[in-house]
Design brief:
With 666 residues, the chain is mainly α. The chain folds into five domains: 103 residues; 84 residues, Cytochrome c-like domain (Cytochrome Bc1 Complex, Chain D, domain 2, Orthogonal Bundle), CATH 1.10.760.10; 61 residues; 97 residues, Four Helix Bundle (Hemerythrin (Met), subunit A) (Up-down Bundle), CATH 1.20.120; 264 residues. The chain is built from 25 helices and four strands. Strands 1-2 form a two-stranded antiparallel ribbon. Strand 1 and strand 2 form a beta hairpin. Helix 3 runs antiparallel to helix 4 and helix 20 packs parallel to helix 25. The longest helix has 32 residues.
Length: 666
């Protein structure tokens, strides 16, 4: 959990924790971000075409100049879709750039204007206008996409000799021409793939191809002008002369904007010079696609190193802001640091849950100190964060043995399934006591639906929610809050029937009709939510565990064996609860079951608010005196404790009504 005092996006309303969001504003901002990204991409392409068409104030290619003007007209039309506030920033700059094209001003001057606008828009919208892919692009997938969508014009090898090429005017680009493409970066390719090329057959792929795949295509096309032999030679040179350079090259965000010439200069600086042109070309050839998943981008330890480096940069910024007296911005920077770390939190938690919890606690303490601590307190808290991150790196760097994977798999399945089994098993026994054993089938359908929903969630997390860790935290947070509300309502109903007299009265009136349809739906919802909440976490953890087994002999088999054993143990626990739960005395049975449900509701409420805080949807006001008991869903913030206090007050009110006010009234 990270503390973020300035981003209050959610307000708890009413007894069931319904969340109200400024939806209209969020949708409007999301629309502005999308339009601004398109405008800046189109304008960047326009200025590239302009630089090819105009040199030293003279027109050298009327065709390129006309393409540039066409692109810029499209950007100005798109500006009409912006909100008034953002349009007031954008339209004047686009008008000035358009006038610059008319007056044949130097392209470098116009690029400076657009650079300033880009900075203003990113600051105003709090979003990157050239978003990076969530994961390292796959060259294999890009090759399939290129052959399916691009080869018809550009040819199988990207030489501009596809079956349709002879009918096109202008002809399609030849991506194998090394000299003419040294000034083109993967970002330039990404922008052209996104917005298309005016006046040609090159379409706008933004609505047809995902962000991840557009970057994959950009990286793939960037490598077509180099041979596999050159890439292999470049890899060998870097391994022997600058192994640390490989970590830099594994990060697409660091190399996407670099042209071949810029990349050559950067690598020469890091390597203290490159002996000859042949070696320089080989190094660039490898560096050009090194960030791909099949190369360095898919290296788990390099991802860990990159993530921890970014986390450290945000932490440095947070401490500097606190030293400067800007506490609010310091806490926001700490949130950014934690969100950067979350890229590796799930595999860390699957491998070493204690280490992940230690990092969370250290971040939580640092945020509290940034908000209201002294300089020495902030320094000590930062040191603790650094120590916990170093321990996390050691945990992730250890090669995982098959036996360890088996044990981790077993513990994940047992831990995540036990809570659901306890609740569902107890409720199955309850419906038997209620004289309606047939309702067990309804609850079984709820469990099956939850299993199916968990599988669907696995697909969704791999697509829709893969671009932001905050999305996963928010989804889990909402699930927990919804489950807390439902669990509390069923817990109240159970307590209301704890007296033998009330139970017999209930049985007498309901035995023929069993449970009402409304109550059946409530019990089914509990079964669904209990299983789905655990299924959600299980999907995340097993995905991380399978990702971490690379290099372990028999790793996948060990994980599957642990999963099967965990399911068998859970099945045995469920059978015992179902078989022997019906023989429990009435009062203890209802009391224990109701207490279990309330405890889960209490824990879910705290954890749900905590997850929404981690995602930045709810602010967090630290409380120095409050304890931190994550196992109980207790965290030292005003928001989490307020939600749990509300549940506690509701419980006391329910007990007062059931055991005092209602009997007194009767």
């Amino acid at each position: 959990m990270i503390l973020n005092t300035m981003r209050i996006r959610t307000i708890l309303i009413g007894f069931t924790f319904a969340a109200a969001f400024p939806v209209g504003r969020a949708v409007a901002q999301a629309g502005d971000v999308a339009v601004a990204r398109r405008i800046t991409a189109i304008t960047a392409v326009a200025l590239q075409e302009y630089a090819l068409g105009v040199s030293s104030g003279r027109i050298v290619s009327q065709t390129e100049l006309e393409e540039a003007r066409s692109f810029l007209d499209e950007a100005r039309r798109n500006a009409g879709d912006l909100s008034p506030e953002i349009r007031s920033l954008t339209a004047p700059v686009l008008d000035e750039v358009s006038a610059g094209l008319r007056d044949l001003r130097p392209a470098s001057e116009l690029e400076i204007l657009m650079g300033r606008l880009r900075h203003q828009l990113e600051s105003s919208l709090s979003a990157a206008l050239d978003p990076m892919p969530a994961e390292s692009p796959s060259l294999a997938r890009a090759a399939r996409l290129f052959h399916a969508r691009c080869a018809e014009c550009h040819g199988e090898q990207g030489r501009g000799d596809g079956p349709k090429a002879h009918r096109l005017d202008p002809p399609p680009a030849n991506f194998s021409l090394r000299d003419s493409l040294t000034g083109v970066s993967p970002l330039d390719f990404y922008r052209k793939i996104t917005v298309g090329v005016a006046g040609t057959e090159m379409p706008d792929w933004e609505r047809l191809v995902s962000l991840q795949d557009r970057w994959a295509l950009a990286l793939y096309v960037s490598g077509l002008r180099f041979s596999d032999a050159e890439r292999a030679r470049g890899d060998s040179i870097l391994r022997s002369r600058c192994d640390s350079c490989r970590t830099f090259l594994s990060d697409l965000s660091g190399t996407a904007e670099l042209t071949d010439d810029s990349l050559k200069r950067v690598m020469a600086g890091q390597m203290n010079g490159i002996p000859n042109d042949t070696d320089a070309v080989a190094v660039v050839a490898f560096a050009r696609t090194a960030a791909a998943a099949e190369a360095l981008g898919g290296d788990r330890m390099m991802e860990v190193a990159r993530t921890l480096e970014r986390t450290g940069e945000h932490l440095d910024q947070a401490v500097a802001l606190a030293d400067a007296g800007d506490r609010k911005a310091a806490v926001d920077a700490a949130l950014d640091a934690y969100l950067a770390f979350e890229r590796i939190e799930t595999p860390l938690r699957a491998r070493d849950a204690r280490s992940a919890t230690s990092v969370e606690g250290a971040f939580r303490d640092l945020s509290g100190k940034l908000f209201a601590g002294t300089g020495p307190e902030i320094a000590r808290a930062r040191q603790q964060v650094d120590s916990s991150l170093a321990a996390a790196e050691r945990s992730l760097s250890r090669e995982t043995a098959a036996g360890m994977l088996f044990g981790q798999s077993f513990v994940i399945m047992l831990r995540e399934g036990l809570e659901a089994i306890l609740i569902v098993g107890a409720l199955m026994a309850f419906v038997v006591k209620a004289g309606a054993p047939g309702r067990k089938r309804d609850m079984g359908w709820g469990v099956l639906a939850a299993v199916g929903a968990s599988l669907v969630t696995a697909v969704v997390l791999a697509t829709v929610f893969r671009e932001s860790t905050a999305h996963r935290e928010a989804l889990e947070g909402f699930i927990m809050l919804l489950a807390a509300g439902v669990l509390f309502s069923v817990s109240y109903w159970l307590v209301s029937k704890i007296e033998v007299r009330k139970w017999h009265s209930f049985v007498h009136s309901q035995i023929q009709r069993a449970l009402s349809s409304r109550r059946t739906l409530a019990l089914s919802a509990v079964a669904f939510l209990a299983v789905y909440r655990e299924g959600f976490e299980t999907v995340l953890f097993y995905g991380a565990l399978f990702a971490s087994e690379r290099g372990a002999v028999g790793g996948s088999a060990a994980i599957m064996s642990g999963m099967v054993l965990g399911l068998m143990v859970l099945g045995a626990i469920y059978y015992v609860i179902q078989r022997y739960g019906v023989r429990l005395p009435l009062k203890p049975f209802f009391g224990i079951t109701s207490g279990l449900l309330y405890f889960m509701a209490f824990s879910f409420a705290g954890q749900g608010i905590s997850d929404l805080q981690e995602a930045g949807y709810i602010g967090a006001t630290p409380l120095r005196w409050a304890p931190s008991l994550p196992a109980l869903g207790i965290f030292p913030t005003t928001q989490t404790l307020a939600a749990q206090l509300l549940l506690t007050v509701a419980l006391l009110a329910a007990l007062a009504w059931i055991f005092w006010l209602e009997p007194k009234k009767a």
